[in-house]
Write a structure and sequence with these properties.
This protein is mainly β and 217 residues long. It has three helices and eleven strands. Strands 1, 2, 3, 4, 5, 6, 7, 8, 9, 10 and 11 form an eleven-stranded antiparallel sheet that branches. The chain is elongated. It starts with a helix and ends with a strand. 30% of the residues are buried.
């Protein structure tokens, strides 16, 4: 198993650990003026890369955008609904990972093709309890879901010559956000768009690196 998949497995395993009513529970979201926001809107742009997902953790200096015909940008528009949060008590502290359902429209603008849409829906878990939040409000999250593209990405064909490619992929969004503590609803967003067949729909996939803005409301 690759390092990113191990990271994802460890992250999700923590959240799916053996549940005890006294130490671990899920609380559905209830809209409140003083509580966490119900919705978030995200907008971003990502560069298509020729990298494997492992490079984003193990080989960062090698990350570079694809500059040929298969390169281009992906413009993302997301509406995310907060479903609730886990309450996890450990070591005298309570952690509250957030659970969201993001729906994303991606407009893929390849260098050699007209733009085409890609539709995504995921189950997303966001960790918000960082010790430096009083300086920089930070979150890290990842999810799993499905992605359907109206066209096969050219970079997908270039990276997997001769292989059958699927328009339906497994979607694995990864994201970090940063905000000023006094304006925490306005967030700078760094994200990775990872889509692959998971060796079920096809083998291998597409990875893009992006920057964007997230607004909680």
């Amino acid at each position: 198993m690759s390092a990113p998949h191990l990271l994802a497995a460890a992250f999700l395993a923590i959240l799916a650990c053996k549940v005890s009513a006294a130490s671990f529970c899920f609380q559905p979201h209830v809209a409140s003026p003083d509580g966490p926001r119900t919705w978030a809107f995200e907008i971003g742009v990502a560069a298509i890369t020729d990298n494997n997902i492992e490079d984003f953790i193990l080989n960062i200096p090698e990350i570079q955008r694809e500059k040929g015909a298969a390169g281009g940008e992906i413009y993302t528009f997301t509406a995310s609904r907060r479903l609730g949060e886990f309450h996890w008590e450990i070591g005298g502290r309570t952690f509250t990972p957030q659970v969201e359902l993001p729906l994303t429209l991606e407009i893929v603008d390849e260098n050699s093709h007209s733009p085409f849409p890609d539709f995504n829906a995921s189950f997303f878990v966001r960790w918000i309890d960082f010790p430096w939040n009083h300086w920089v409000k930070t979150s890290f999250g990842m999810g799993v879901g499905l992605s359907y593209s109206s066209h096969i990405y050219l970079i997908d064909e270039v990276r997997h010559p001769g292989d059958d490619r699927s328009k339906l992929k497994i979607n694995w969004p990864i994201q970090m956000t940063f905000a000023h503590p006094e304006y925490e609803d306005h967030q700078l967003m760094l994200f990775i768009l990872h889509q692959s067949g998971g060796k079920m729909l096809d083998s291998g996939g597409v990875n893009s690196l992006g920057l964007g803005y997230r607004y909680d409301f």
